């Protein structure tokens, strides 16, 4: 890893922490298995819809063992508001069944005693669990472990600022972006890093028509500088009165 990229990653983190006010409170306190289900529901789905689906599952089933035993059609109906419910319903049941078989129960608390790379490897050995989900389980759940999730917004900001290359997909980006940050960062610092890049992607670095003219990272972002430089003089003046 180039030292200049590590320095840039830290500069971006500090800049955005000033904008979005770190430390950022954790958004919920789910146990690891519940976080696993929540993360699987959220793939390519708006937070409001995945949240409603998760609440519907919790209201219907007394415990997650009951979800495994339920008819898949019933699970699918309960999560119908998410993207691809016909795929997610059987996947969630299969993932939970695999956890139960490998761990002996639906309790992932033992992951807390493993180093983060080993805990992530244990989770990702289960079909249907990728880097984003494994990191989310460790970081967002009550485990509160120092893992770095990367969602689509985080990924977009990282690409545009040059922290990762234009052809690096979300999955491989996890290891690259984590390696750019200090090895001794705790769970809160890594959570903050994910949250501020995600928030910046949601509020400024939009997928279409990013608001480069008001971006706090413009001097660190080659994409934004190129976009601003390509504007006609009267367009730039309108953005910077």
What fraction, in percent, of the residue positions are helical? 55-70%
| Biggest beta sheet summary | none
Q: What's the end-to-end separation, in Å?
A: 40 Å
Which residue ranges are poorly predicted, with pLDDT under 50 across at least 5 consecutive positions? 232-241
| CATH class (first level) name of the largest domain | Mainly Alpha
InterPro entries: DNA_glycosylase, Endouclease-III_FeS-bd_BS, HhH-GPD_domain, HhH_base_excis_C
Keywords: DNA damage, DNA repair, Glycosidase, Hydrolase, Iron, Iron-sulfur, Metal-binding
Protein name: Fe-S cluster assembly protein HesB
Domain HhH-GPD: 41-203
Summarize this entry quickly.
60% of the residues lie in helices and 0% in strands. The chain has helices spanning 3-20, 32-42, 47-60, 64-69, 72-78, 85-103, 116-124, 131-140, 152-160, 170-179, 187-203, 222-229, 233-239. The model is unreliable at 232-241 (pLDDT under 50).
């Amino acid at each position: 890893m180039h030292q200049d990229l590590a320095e840039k990653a830290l500069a971006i983190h500090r800049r955005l922490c000033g904008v979005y006010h770190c430390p950022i409170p954790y958004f919920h306190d789910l146990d690891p298995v519940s976080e696993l289900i929540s993360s699987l529901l959220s793939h390519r789905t708006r937070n409001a819809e995945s949240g409603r689906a998760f609440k519907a599952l919790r209201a219907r089933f007394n415990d997650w063992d009951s979800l495994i035993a339920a008819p898949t059609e019933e699970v699918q109906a309960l999560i119908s508001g998410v993207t691809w419910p016909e795929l997610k319903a059987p996947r969630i049941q299969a993932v939970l069944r695999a956890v139960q078989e490998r761990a002996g129960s639906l309790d992932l608390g033992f992951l807390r005693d493993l180093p983060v790379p080993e805990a992530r490897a244990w989770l990702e050995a289960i079909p249907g669990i990728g880097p984003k989900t494994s990191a989310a389980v460790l970081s967002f759940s009550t485990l509160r472990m120092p893992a770095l999730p990367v969602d689509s917004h985080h990924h977009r900001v990282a690409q545009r600022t040059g922290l990762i290359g234009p052809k690096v997909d979300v999955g491989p980006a996890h290891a690259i972006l984590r390696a750019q940050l200090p090895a001794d960062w705790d769970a809160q610092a890594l959570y903050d890093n994910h949250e501020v890049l995600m928030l910046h992607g949601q509020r400024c670095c939009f997928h279409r028509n990013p608001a480069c003219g008001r971006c706090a990272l413009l001097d660190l972002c080659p994409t934004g500088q190129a976009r601003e430089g390509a504007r006609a003089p009267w367009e730039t003046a309108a953005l910077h009165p």
